[in-house]
């Protein structure tokens, strides 16, 4: 007779209990691959929409107003405010563009796994790694653009940096909206990473 | 008859199922838990050191210089530059402080798993989730502080924001060093997340 002295606390108690009884409990259901990758594709489509919206709103933020020329008193000129006047906003546009491109490529990869699920485990690992890196890039871009946007909104009296949003209202609205959408994209990337990780974790349990 | 005194906790179904078959395949090697969590503890200690260094360097950056008062021409005064003059730097210090505290707690948790590896799978999942969130927070803090630091270093002629680093040299050195160390902390968080994910992935293969 098989003697099991120290059964595992989590699983084998059922097996030991059912040793004498003829009807074995049904085996656990196979991991639900289709559901995971379907949610994954949906989130990546949302990520693409968020990244493209964010980039378009930021790029179309240009506004020209008649303002005093900085550094030259009593002198006014029509001066434009553009996103590419600030390196932080350029980095923001670059990072979100990369995130948009990345979302297309990984959505296609995810769809290919849906059609042919043989390599799903390898894809899960690579998705988890890449989503992580992309999250770092997008989060830092949101932080950088948010910090510069905040100075534009409130100014900084300690170092004499003037607020710009009292003059360039449309520009500031665009920048703020763009940052809000990019924050949503960062949240989507967190969800995507969590989805990959929890899917990996669930497969261990199965 | 086969008598199994201490069944492997992870593969009980195979053992029970193969009771009648004479040639048992060699059981797969158990996952190398100790190695993973030892590296994990080491990385978390590094993360703690990086976070504390970053916060200390940023907080001790105060410098007072005799400068023209912003907005008042022909008027000079000894004015201090402190990290808490900028909301981005305050967020930076808060985020890195949280990262330092988090690294202590998770290092203790990791050590407890080293001593008692029963719950390693659950810990892996929670570590992967929490490292992810912490990476988002630290990356955005580095982005925010970096963007403000860059304006301080180079100024922005388009909106008349003056550069500050030509005057406050010590302050800028501290801020720059602090951001560099925080960037290292963010890289450590990426490595920690990758470690958790690849460990989860390896357990599927086992």
UniProtKB/TrEMBL annotation, chains A, B:
Ranges of compositional bias, category Basic and acidic residues: 1-11
TM ranges:
41-60, 88-115, 127-153, 173-195
Q: Which residues form the Casparian strip membrane protein domain?
A: 39-188
Q: Where is this region: Disordered?
A: 1-24
Indicate what this protein is called per its UniProt record: CASP-like protein
* UniProt keyword annotation of Transmembrane present: yes
NCBIfam families xref list: A_tha_TIGR01569
Source organism, top-level taxon: Eukaryota
GO CC annotations, alphabetized: plasma membrane
> What UniProt keywords apply to this chain's record, in alphabetical order?
Cell membrane, Membrane, Transmembrane, Transmembrane helix
This chain's source organism reads Rubroshorea leprosula
The membrane topology noted for this protein in its Swiss-Prot or TrEMBL record is: Multi-pass membrane protein
Q: Which InterPro entries match?
A: CASP/CASPL, CASP_dom, CASPL
Q: Where in the cell is it found?
A: Cell membrane
What family name appears in the similarity comment?
A: Belongs to the Casparian strip membrane proteins (CASP) family.
Query: Subunit structure, per the record?
Result: Homodimer and heterodimers.
